[in-house]
């Protein structure tokens, strides 16, 4: 804490500091490029912005994604094997899924209440300037029956190859449980998986060390393409979502954490800064998963058997930030088209947005696609999405950070309720330089 900047610059800067500096530099460089507005074919655009910088950002995200399937599988096999010992898998699953659904329902309800107060779609002239142009096809909701069937992998290798996370989670869970019941053979294989898990954690640390470079590239692109004029047109919509996201992250989660665990929300948020920065830069809770999992286990003190189950499941089905955007967007679009949403429609939105959050893949921009489903359910014109597309990118970054915070909060609460949270690790000073 007392280190001076000059000693830090001598190679001892913490990872967070390096990420923050990289973010700032990237944004400045990108904004400069946007301001100078070089022609597309200029070499700076062709070879730097759309060349090296674009490649750098994509490689970073792909490296993170590379870890996801092997990490979730190995980590969850280890976790499920210990769950099998204690026989607590059902209770843990129930609590985790229940909390995920509850926080999402709170998120979307609060977002709509705020939106009904700020009236983002009654913005007068500026809002009326935008013309919905693009045609959108509403996504049809899969039936509950199909959703359930789809969780079961007919071919676990194909599920892994296609990155179907719920299927991978189910297979790893069953495999780990079988491991715990398979006597000596199970024991042997279990120590192999424990070793493999250590190696995966090491690999994550190696890739996380590259975060400043990846984040620099991603932020340069953001700075170069961010349209402030677009944001100004829908300023009230944008502000309403930011307020709702902040309220959820700074009030709902802290209250939940404090009341259910007695832990300090500030200490929690301070330790979450790396996953938050990576989520913000990548707009993908899936790509952030390795960083979230490592933080939840190593800094928040959640044991592997809870973290390896709750965090990947959360990254897949828990999207509070996305549900907030969908709640506000629904009110915005209804107001823009002068359609009155009655109580039944509002409740339908809560229900559909909560379920849609389960079906939203943890990658950039998908929240907007599942928004078509929510709009369709309450009979709103799906074309309305064209109104908000201009600000979608920045909001995606912000809501992904909230999505990831929700996963870590629930994992911590569940671990604490099982008396398994290592409070010494949670309260220990952050050893992030180790990264
Ligand atoms: N980008 C979000 C996530 O990965 C999903 C979305 O809202 O589009 O969490």
Supply the helix-strand structural class. Answer: mainly alpha
Distance between the termini: 17 Å
Q: Write down the secondary-structure element order.
A: HHHHHHHHHHHHHHHHHHHHHH
Shape: globular
Low-confidence stretches: 1-10
State the helical fraction: over 70%
Radius of gyration: 22 Å
Which range does the strand content fall in?
under 5%
Q: Which distinct ligands sit in these coordinates?
A: aspartic acid
State mean pLDDT (0 to 100 scale): 88
- What count of helical segments does DSSP give? 22
Q: How many β-strand stretches?
A: 0
Describe this structure in words.
78% of the residues lie in helices and 0% in strands. It is mainly α and 435 residues long. Helix 4 (89-118) packs across helix 18 (343-359), helix 8 packs antiparallel against helix 16 and helix 12 (235-261) packs antiparallel against helix 17 (320-336). It is globular and about 65 Å long. Residues 1-10 have low confidence and may be disordered.
Care to give the gist of this entry?
By secondary structure, this protein is mainly alpha-helical.
What's the helix and strand layout?
Layout: H1 5-12, H2 15-36, H3 43-86, H4 89-118, H5 125-129, H6 144-151, H7 156-161, H8 165-180, H9 183-208, H10 211-225, H11 228-233, H12 235-261, H13 265-271, H14 273-282, H15 285-298, H16 304-317, H17 320-336, H18 343-359, H19 366-377, H20 385-388, H21 392-417, H22 423-427
Helix pairs in contact: 2-10, 2-14, 3-8, 3-9, 3-10, 3-15, 3-16, 4-12, 4-16, 4-17, 4-18, 4-21, 8-9, 8-16, 12-17, 12-21, 14-15, 14-21, 15-16, 15-21, 16-21, 17-18, 17-19, 17-21, 18-19
This protein binds aspartic acid (ASP).
Residues 283-286, 319, 322, 360, 362-367, 396, 399-400, 403 line the site of aspartic acid.
